[in-house]
Fold this sequence. Notes:
By secondary structure, the chain is α+β, with helices and mostly antiparallel strands. It has helices at 3-15, 21-41, 45-60, 68-75, 78-85, 160-163, 197-204, and strands at residues 124-133, 143-147, 169-173, 179-185, 190-191, 210-211, 214-220, 227-233, 252-253, 256-258, 261-262, 268-269, 273-282. A 5-stranded mixed beta sheet has the order 3-2-7-8-9, with no helix packed on it.
Amino acid sequence: MTIENSITEAARARVAQAADDRIRQISDALVRHLHAFIREVEPSQAEWKAGIDFLTRTGHMCDDLRQEFILLSDVLGVSMLVDAINHRQDRGATQSTVLGPFYVDNPPEMPAGADIAAGLPGAPLLVEGRVTDAAGNALAGAIVDTWQADEAGFYDVQQLDRLGGLSGRARFRTDAEGRFHFWTVKPSSYPIPDDGPVGDLLKAQGRHPWRPAHVHFMIAAPGHATLVTHVFEAGDRYLDSDVVFGVKPQLIAQIEHCPAGDAPDGRAMAQPYHRLRYDFALAPEKGD
């Protein structure tokens, strides 16, 4: 038997020695599917080297502010597939979507009604919401992390030199009725960072790098599964072709244009502003 015909079973026999059942299962599947991929595409030596170089460049592009492997997972649809597998039973809860590469742990906590977009350009946007369990009961004290791009499509971590710190992101806690609200700027659609290997991949595949306008949320409450999601602006041109496949119909909402005057939270607005309202429901925490 030639090495071409025997190598897969030999590799599977080696990984079968793993003591941990889950590592053994994952390693066996990895060998089987990776070898099947190689047999299907039959890469040349030069193509295989190019693939290794691509992954090496992807790793080199990663740092504390940019995660190119998350981008790669996102644009190949893998992040959304993992998300779907892990939320099959979340009936009655708000649908989840990808985390994305721009989340920052422990963002600054702010009081209700704060303006989180200091230094970011854009039209004022009032964001209001309520957090409940899947049955509609208010969740008081829930932690609401939010982050977004500005009107030019840039996140704070992409322009720290100009801003001098974080902006367009914050942490809030819901009140006794599960409510929260804050001010920010209206986001816009934007391209994911495409100046690295993931951008090269998109160009080679004939794809655009754009995401529809959205605001990110990560919401946590004791006894409930943490929700990672976006709210997308209705009518955005990229809703049907989001580069990371993250749009779900339930997550699309209208952003209302409002005239100058007193806003719903009592703030006097001397200029027109926008208003986004969206309520979130959390699934019960999953058991082991």
